C-alpha cells in the first residue's frame, strides 16, 4: 500500500479558505479525511470507497459560532443511499440531509461543495488520465453536499478528457460540468487524479 498523501489547497475567490486532505490511494479505491477552514466555519470530513472508486461512506461535521451540524451518508452495494444528520444551535440554513433518496439511485459519488478532492473518484473511474480514455462525454449523477448547510442534492454532471496525463508536464486536463448548477471548468489534475488547479475555486499549495 502506498503511503497516504497530504494535499492542500487555497481558495481563489475566498483566499481565506484552506482545504486539506490526507488521501490513501489503494488498488482501485481510496480512503481520505480532510478539513476546510473559512472565516465563517470549519469542517472535518472522512470518505471511503469500494473498488471502482464508488463512494460507500461519507461523513462531515461543520462548526460555526452558535451552531453545528453533521451528516453521514452511506451507499449500499445495491446503490441505495441512507443518511443520518444531527443539528445543534440555530442558523438560517436549509436542513441537512436528503429530501428524496430515490433521486440518488444512480449516484456513485459524493461531491462535497468547494472541496477539490471529491472530483478524483469519477476522474479515476472513467479512466480520464489515459490516452485511451473514452472520446465522448460521460454523464453521471452525484450526491452533491451543499456547504455549509449539508443539504444533499442530486447533481447532474458531465466529465470528459481534454488531455491525458503527461509525465513530462506533470498533469492532465479534464473538462467538468455541472448541468444542475450551470458550471463548467477545465480541471488540471496530477497522476492520481487529484486537482492541481480548479479555476475560480482552488489551487494546490506546494
Please tally the helical runs, counting DSSP H or I stretches of 4 or more residues: 1
Question: What is the 3D form?
Answer: globular
Strand content: over 45%
Distance between the termini: 24 Å
Report mean pLDDT, rounded to a whole number: 95
Helical coverage, percent range = under 10%
The main pleated sheet reads as: 15 strands, mixed
Structural class of the secondary elements? mainly beta
Low confidence ranges: none
H-E order: EEEEEEEEEHEEEEEE
For the secondary structure, the number of strands is 15
Rg computed from alpha carbons, rounded to a whole number of angstroms = 16 Å
How do the strands and helices of this protein lay out in sequence?
Elements: E1 5-11, E2 18-26, E3 29-37, E4 42-50, E5 54-64, E6 67-75, E7 81-89, E8 97-98, E9 109-112, H1 120-125, E10 138-145, E11 151-166, E12 171-178, E13 183-189, E14 195-198, E15 202-204
Parallel strand pairs: 8-11, 9-10
Antiparallel strand pairs: 1-2, 1-15, 2-3, 3-4, 4-5, 5-6, 6-7, 10-11, 11-12, 12-13, 13-14, 14-15
Amino acid at each position: 500500500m502506498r503511503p497516504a498523501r497530504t494535499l492542500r489547497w487555497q481558495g481563489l475567490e475566498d483566499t481565506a479558505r484552506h482545504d486539506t486532505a490526507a488521501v490513501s490511494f489503494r488498488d482501485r479505491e481510496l480512503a481520505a479525511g480532510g478539513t476546510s477552514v473559512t472565516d465563517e466555519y470549519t469542517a472535518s470530513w472522512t470518505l471511503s470507497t469500494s473498488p471502482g472508486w464508488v463512494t460507500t461512506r461519507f461523513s462531515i461535521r461543520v462548526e460555526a459560532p452558535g451552531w453545528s451540524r453533521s451528516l453521514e451518508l452511506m451507499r449500499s452495494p445495491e446503490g441505495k443511499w441512507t443518511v443520518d444528520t444531527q443539528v445543534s444551535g440555530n442558523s438560517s440554513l436549509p436542513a441537512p440531509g436528503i429530501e428524496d433518496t430515490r433521486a440518488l439511485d444512480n449516484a456513485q459519488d459524493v461531491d462535497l461543495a468547494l472541496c477539490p478532492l471529491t472530483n478524483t473518484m469519477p476522474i479515476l473511474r472513467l479512466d480520464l488520465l489515459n490516452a485511451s480514455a473514452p472520446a465522448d462525454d460521460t454523464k453521471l449523477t452525484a450526491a452533491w453536499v451543499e456547504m455549509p448547510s449539508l443539504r444533499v442534492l442530486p447533481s447532474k454532471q458531465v466529465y470528459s478528457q481534454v488531455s491525458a496525463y503527461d509525465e513530462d508536464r506533470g498533469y492532465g486536463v479534464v473538462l467538468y460540468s455541472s448541468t444542475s448548477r450551470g458550471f463548467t471548468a477545465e480541471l488540471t489534475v496530477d497522476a492520481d487524479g487529484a486537482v492541481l488547479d480548479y479555476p475560480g475555486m482552488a489551487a494546490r499549495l506546494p
